[in-house]
Amino acid sequence: MKINTPLKFAILICLIISFFVILYSYLSTLFNPIIVGSALFIIYFSATYYLLKYQFYEKVKIIYKNIYKFKGTSNISDLNLENANIEAEQWADQKEEELIKMKENENYRREFIGNVSHELKTPIFNIQGYIQTLIDGGLQDENVNLKYLKRANLSVDRMINIVDDLEVISQLETDNEVLELDNFNIVDTINEAFDQLEMKANNMNISLKLTNESNSDMVHADRNKIQQVFMNLISNSIKYGKDNGVTNVRLFDMSDKMLIEVADDGIGIGEEALSRLFERFYRVDKNRSREIGGTGLGLAIVKHIIEAHQQTINVRSTVDVGSTFSFILEKGKN
Ligand code: ADP
Fold first, then answer.
1. What is the pLDDT of residues 247-268, one digit of tens each?
2. Which fold has domain 97-173?
3. Atom number in ligand 1 closest to CA 161
4. How far apart are CA 313 and CA 258, in angstroms?
5. pTM
């Protein structure tokens, strides 16, 4: 039934009621059935029409117009009373969800801005301290001038790392689901990451190994983003590795998918930290991470990228034994 028809609705009800009244009057022969029927029809009609029009229709119409404004139509004549309840409930649920999401986003933004300024504050204050010391006479002191300039330079590097990672995160969030999917050779991608991190690994005497137990080298994914995942995971395996350790990237077969593991025999991660590892700016040991140039954003970036591929990133770790990060990708065509 269309809700734009209170007139029709009123006529229908009045006709039904009048019919029974006429029938009753005719049978009882107490009144002139035509007069009684007509009078009752007019009274019922006026009352029903007024009730429907002003107590119901006008109010529902306003609510409907509001709901439909968001659904891209305001054509009230298309609206169906039977669905009104369901549609109003759906609309309310949707609004509630939007509100919750907005509040979450607001909290997240507030927390994120707080974290970013906190992270940037430390290197900025360090740089300020070194420069002030140099201005106050340190520049002429050969024991400290070069040392302080090098330290200031390290703080600048840290700021650059933070800004670079923030840029990656913000880009990932802006073109959220936009992946440039392609078939590519994952062994080549891993070897490229090894090449770029070779010096870092040599400094720690860590050897980088690749074990391919899969029957294919090809995956279907976003090459640049997966390259970023390897850079972050392998560089972590070096940063939190042990002297003379080994980082092993292993590829396993999973029918039409490939399981990829980045395993190290480094310092490992305590069980209590595992669930928070992928949060932005979370570090198990803040000082150690900062000293070695960590931003606390590397694993958040990895999670983002793997989830954009509709997969999850997993971690197994034991303190002093090592950590293994793993994820799955679709196999690609040659
Ligand atoms: P960071 O820039 O601090 O390395 P990440 O987001 O990459 O930030 O990692 C978050 C934290 O997880 C690190 O600070 C470190 O405590 C821990 N972590 C990451 N990878 C490893 C690993 N392979 N072994 C041990 N700890 C790790």
1. 999 999 998 999 999 999 999 9
2. Helix Hairpins (1.10.287)
3. 2
4. 13
5. 0.72
